[in-house]
Amino acid sequence: MNNIPQIKIGIVAVSRDCFPESLSVNRRKALVAAYKSKYNEGEIYECPVCIVESEIHMQKALQDVISAGCNALCVYLGNFGPEISETMLAQEWAKTGNPVMFCAAAEENIGVLTSDRGDAYCGMLNASYNLKLRGVKAYIPEYPVGDADYCAELIHGFVPIARALVGVKNLKIISFGPRPQNFFACNAPIQQLYNIGVEVEENSELDLFESFKNHADDKRIPQVVKDMEAELGKGNKKPEILAKLAQYELTLLDWVEAHRGSKKYVAIAGKCWPAFQTQFGFVPCYVNSRLTGRGIPVSCEVDIYGALSEYIGECVSGESVTLLDINNTVPYEMYKKEIEGKFPYKFTDTFMGFHCGNTCSQRLCNPEMRYQKIMARSLPQEVTNGTLEGDIKAGEITFYRLQSTADNHLYSYVAEGEVLPVASHSFGSIGVFAIEEMGRFYRHVLIENGFPHHGAVAFGRWGKALFEVFKYLGAEKTGYNQREKYPTENPFNE
Fold first, then answer.
1. From CA 70, how far away is CA 67, in angstroms rounded?
2. Where would I find the beta strands (DSSP E) of 282-349?
3. What is the DSSP letter of 491?
């Protein structure tokens, strides 16, 4: 994926001047060695300029990691640390718009306790207090103190978080509207997008149609058609529509390059009805799936926060995601026959996630090009061709979303679960999902906080990183599925 950032973390060790500097030097070296032996060596840069003990040291270290091309920073307390200069370093680094984390060294053995004790466990408290005084955001892991191997693991866990935070700060969302009637749930104030550094370019559907027509004779169309044919294989059930879909794909890709502007990364919030299919002559689902598979997420129904959520998930996971309706209940008959007793889920833990055909082929079982059945109820079938349909592959997933409320608060949710290996018996890009305590999560997080019907899906368990991303971005609430009572849950509901 070339639409997400590569992370290079600069690690700067700090030392309080009344502690041996060698503690921080040697512990930093051990930490970097541990990281390079276990993870991608290119992800970490060891700042050799100095151990930060003063504001002057801080300035030198800051310039060094910037000059080295780092886009994330780890402040490492090799001992108690200088709470002023180390938090000033984080404060100055924040001006670059890039994220920072803090972690600290544990005492290695009994022998150090007599004279070489570092006391970084104590110093982390003062660092966190001073960060609060300065109003500086920093990622501090759940337990931020450990030996070299443990801190290497903490820093590696920061990589997907940093990737999302750097990506968001450098993201432009290009939308083509207006939003369809009766889908205002996908509408939300864009103030929060500006607050977190995202740029928005809102265009008319007519602008897109004009650009599409200008691509009618594009010489690249046959090559894109060949690529589509190779991807679809036996699932190429609508070969007559591929040329138009290729024309549309080139339209979007050229628009992205022409309108990227000052931002490095792009996501799209597209439109697909009610006039799209009659004027363009197809539905764009398959093209949306292909771009999302390449790292350029395309949300449906001009869902700008859906596109943002998808992009965050791609940055965190480094892989394709999808956007689905939290759509329908599993029929009780189906639950009894195919789920109960085979999987550890209650009936209310299950639901079906669906969209018309926007999930990329690598995530589907036996994907096929088909027509959009819902639209074809009132339109000629031939103008509804273009969906990519199939059951979503079984496996672990994370359902999540970042959303502005109508009154401009930033909320989010994260829930881990799985797609069950159960046939959907239905149409579209669809899967049978199971999330523990989904019924209560549905009522007391999704409904209670006014989340729309679209949810982003990352493949794998990414809840930990997504939770930290949303916290760093300033989400006031992050709901999750839980066994304990929700604040709004009736205590007598037993």
1. 8
2. 298-299, 321-328
3. T
- Residues 6 or more apart in contact with residue 490 via CB below 8 angstroms: none
* Integer angstrom CA distances of residue 207 from 177, 203, 277: 10, 7, 16
Fold classification of 170-480 (topology level): L-fucose Isomerase; Chain A, domain 3 (3.20.14)
Look at the alpha carbons of 439, 353, 292, 303 in this order and tell me if their dihedral is positive or negative.
Answer: negative
Percent of the chain topping pLDDT 90: 78
**pTM flag (> 0.90):** yes
Strand order in the sheet with 298-299: 199-204, 171-177, 265-269, 298-299
- What mean pLDDT, rounded, does the chain reach? 92
Class of domain 9-168: alpha beta
Residue among 329, 336, 334, 248 at smallest CA distance from 284: 248
Q: Give the type of residue at 18.
A: C
Distance from C-alpha of 226 to C-alpha of 248, rounded to nearest angstrom: 15
Query: In 3-state terms, what secondary structure has residue 142?
Result: coil
- For 396, the token pair is 């672990």
Q: Which amino acid is at 184?
A: F
Among 88, 3, 64, 4, smallest CA distance to 316 is for: 4
> Is the pLDDT confidence value at 117 over 90?
no
Q: What is the pLDDT of residues 432-467, one digit of tens each?
A: 999 999 999 999 999 999 999 999 999 999 999 999
Q: Where are the domains of the chain?
A: 9-168, 170-480
pLDDT tens-digit map of 178-197: 777 766 666 788 999 999 99
